[in-house]
Amino acid sequence: MAETAASPLSRLPAVAERSAADAAALDALLRGAREPFVLRGLVADWPLVRAGLESPRAARAYLLERAREVPFAVSIGEPGHDGRMFYDAAMGMNFRMARGRLADIFAGIDANEGRADAPTIYLASIDVPGHFTTVDAENSVELGDRDPLASLWIGTPTTIAAHNDFPDNLACCVAGRRRFTLFPPDQFANLYLGPVDNTPAGRAVSMVDFRAPDFAAHPRFAAALEQAQVAELEPGDALFVPSMWWHHVEGLAPFNILLNYWWRDTPRWLGQPQDALNHAMLAIRDLPAADKAIWRELFDHYVFDNGPLVTDHIPAGARGVLDPLTAESAGRLRAFLLRTLSR
């Protein structure tokens, strides 16, 4: 990000740093954490980190030796966008998607190494055990009783617009350098979010260009910056990004690798909140104001307050999904929703 010394983005406070001597200490830091923090050197002993410190080609060779014979999804951006994976002028994408062998994708990175007009080449959210044999076992963090999804993010210099994710996230810088600019969950209105159904990678993103913020077009972004923090990661460092925190992510080196872990503290059989929000836009948002007010009260009653007024008058054992959900009752509710949505 080419901000000047006078840019407000160059003066953001750093994310707090913590330390964890062992798995128990890391578990204690993560349990219930609602603020981001950096762990310097957490994964410095990983073989993949050591390979990346040797050279980018050594890191690529390490991954190639362990790649499964499955297609890899890759995003390819045209030169001239400085690696920003974003919308084009027509609100399409300024990159194209392709699939291919990892060897061929890495050969493209090799061929463009050092070129000023090189395309952006980016492999995003690659499921580690599904695409590699021993990478997960050889490069891992002990996360206690959590059941995380491990993903790799590999590519040339990239800029990923600010977005958030529902799971908690431990992002480990493996090769190159990463910069995260983070905002608390309540800053969504100040980030000027784009569409929810036409996104670069499945989540609504900030329409603000962090390299050159237009405060005339996006005046509330100044308020967001008052709440922002920044973390710059070197190989071996890790960043905890709590659920729903907005994060703008830059791969700053000619070649970058990040391995992250996603997990949720609630059971996987519970639904995705974003699905509920999308359905509410379909069913409620465009109702008359008086009707919307009624539904707001019903949501408060059944979902947000969810107090004894909801259930105390119903005999125990007859409350159905008004009782705390179980895997079985959640399955019944999901089946009911699928039937109603298919009408």
TrEMBL record:
Gene3D superfamilies: Jelly Rolls. Pfam families: Cupin_8. PROSITE patterns: JMJC (PS51184). Residues 124-278 form the JmjC domain. InterPro entries: Cupin_8, JmjC_dom, RmlC-like_jellyroll. PANTHER family: HYPOXIA-INDUCIBLE FACTOR 1 ALPHA INHIBITOR-RELATED (PTHR12461), HYPOXIA-INDUCIBLE FACTOR 1-ALPHA INHIBITOR (PTHR12461:SF105). This is Cupin. It comes from Novosphingobium arvoryzae.
